[in-house]
Amino acid sequence: MSASGDGMGSGEEWDRPGLGIGFPGQSRSEELAPPRRRKRPMSRWRMWIRRVMPNDGRIVTVLVLALGFELYHVTREIEQGISRFDNAVRGNVTPLPLLGLTLVWGAQRAARFHPFYWPDYSDWLRLTPWRPGNDPPWGPIRLVAQDLLLLGLWAGLVWGLSGGTLHPFKVVSMFLLGYLGMSVPPILNGGAPLLACLTLFGLGGVIRVYNDPHWMLGVAVGTALVAHLGQIRALRQFPWTQVPTVKIGHLAIRSRPDPARVRVKDSNGETVDDPEDLGDLGYPLEQLRPLHSWELKRMPVLGAVLVSALVAWWFHVAAIAFGGTGQPLLGPLTGFYVHICLGILLVRTLVYFTRVRPPITLGGRLRTGRFLQPRYDVALLPLPLIVVTAVSVPLVGQGLAAEVLLPAALGLTWFVGLACPPTLAWWRLAGSHRFDDAAFRNANSDSRVGDFVKTG
Amino acid sequence: MIVLSNVVHHYGVRPILRGINLTIERGDVVAVVGPNGTGKSTLLGIMGGQLCPQIGQVAIDGLVRRRTIEEEQAIRRVTFFLPDYVWLPGDRSGREYLLSVGRLYGVEEFRLMDHVQRLLELFELEAMADQDLRSYSSGQKKKIALAAALVSEARYLLLDEPFSGGLDPSGILAMKRVLQRHPRRRDMTVVLTSPVPELIEEVANRVVVLKDGRVLVFETVEGIKRLTGGRGSLSDALERLIFPETIDKLDRYFQEERLPEWVDQTFNALPRDRQRLDSEAGGF
Lengths: 456, 284
What we know:
By secondary structure, chain A is mainly alpha-helical. Chain A has helices at about 30, 45-50, 55-80, 85-95, 95-110, 120-125, 145-160, 170-190, 195-210, 215-235, 285-290, 295, 300-325, 330-355, 360-370, 375, 380-395, 400-420, 425-430, 440, and strands spanning about 15, 35-40, 240-250, 250-255, 355, 435, 450-455. Chain B has 12 helices and 11 strands.
């Protein structure tokens, strides 16, 4: 019932049950109740734009921060007489927070509606008629027209706030950087590792050409197209049989398959979804169990090449981003280089030699004359090879720029670490090591206390 | 069938197993016995894949252990090795653990649920079934470990001291009965170690006697008794077989002290004096 003629405010509709008119069915309490404001239904425009906007709380937070930022400039203007619209002031102070904010916006946009990051949503979604190809009910995963509109407005605002120092293309690229970075884990999880790898290459490229806004946007858009293909492929695999093992609040990184969703049989009655990981089964089952299908797969040479190239590429990008070109980078970079090379050495050692022992001690080798244990020693060979590669490549390539030489050497070292035989499957099943039970015999071992219990 | 061919293994410079050759047929329940430190657990560990022999090989159903990925994977699907000490995940319940093991070995889900429940009842673990393993006593943990071996339905069970580790009489009885019945009905092969000959006599049909890292005897229980004169229990037979010198020493230790022979002859020649001496000495 409209009451617009009584001066209560235009555009508002009021129910006046308390007028005592006595509507049929009206209770006495309703009659005496104060007038209620009935909200107008949300406009279609507002519903349309809200579909991709961050929630109100976050918008308020950003506005508060922006207000605080402006107050800072106003304070400086009052104290030092520097106009807060001075380009020099804006150009020095505002770009980083604004770009950071844009990056975060892009990341949250990618994660906000993706069931990969919301296990409860994913569980609910798998019970609904929704299937990939349509936008999920909570919101669209892909970028839509609303995003372009908001992004355009934001880019313009940032350009103004930064005194014209931040090119709008850079703002858009930064948004895409956050969005695509957050899209990589679902793509990887969805069985599209090559597309995930290419996306990561592209992201490195976006940072590499940071100084040129046009190139930056071009690379970002190209990478976005690749990532879009990856998203489609990954979503086709929904529902995934993974559970999160790393959770940050509601944000969950899926890692290992869900042991509860184990057997799925196809029409022939064959098991098509093995229990990929039943969790650690203790000793000796964990060491002596049949390996799962994914454990038997070896990293293909192409995969090792891609991963190594990715590591090298990002090292190069980081070197340029933090050190620039033409500067003496060798000293600072060498430290990082050594650490990352040691990283692959450590990883290889830990993966292959944790809780295993040689079949015979060194003294035993000498005493019995069995100096070589080929099926054990073969796993030791890659370790010195990694060291030799890490040392020799920079020496051989002296003369090249540090930002090129060291990444190339790093890539080669990682390739050796990843691709050098024997494979982990061969080592675990056919290597002539013995499983080290000493840690389990020691009742005071702190490696498993609290997680495992001992029998016998 | 498990075939060990010339298996040699030592820790460092100390030899443990010296040229072991064994053939264990399908369906056999074989007990490995021997003095402490003679290599029983080492032998079982080699069969189970925990250790890799320096020389020789272990073949199960014609597949050689640790030779290739495919062979080892195929062997692992049909064998279950249970050492005398087992580490269990403390944050899992007993039921969850058994279900996980069953799934690992490819047991059909509908049979697995039922089998787990029956095993929990058999080992009197129903009340504890849904509690975390960290709250179990040592005997209960041992029962869960044994139940895991049974739930796997593996064709080859390699059990190191299955009757020890705090197992109570009901658990021992349950395990005995299962080992007496399962191999015949399910074509299962069991190799176990135990220091208790009485238990071995009840469950095993063949016995491997190890001494000084070598196979002394590989025979049926009755065969071992026949080898040692056929008297007494398996325990007596093993004593005579493994420790013949100890038996002699014991005989000598428990023999009454005897006077020198010439004194004894002189004493016997004097019957009256002997009677008097007997009465004075109180029959000494």
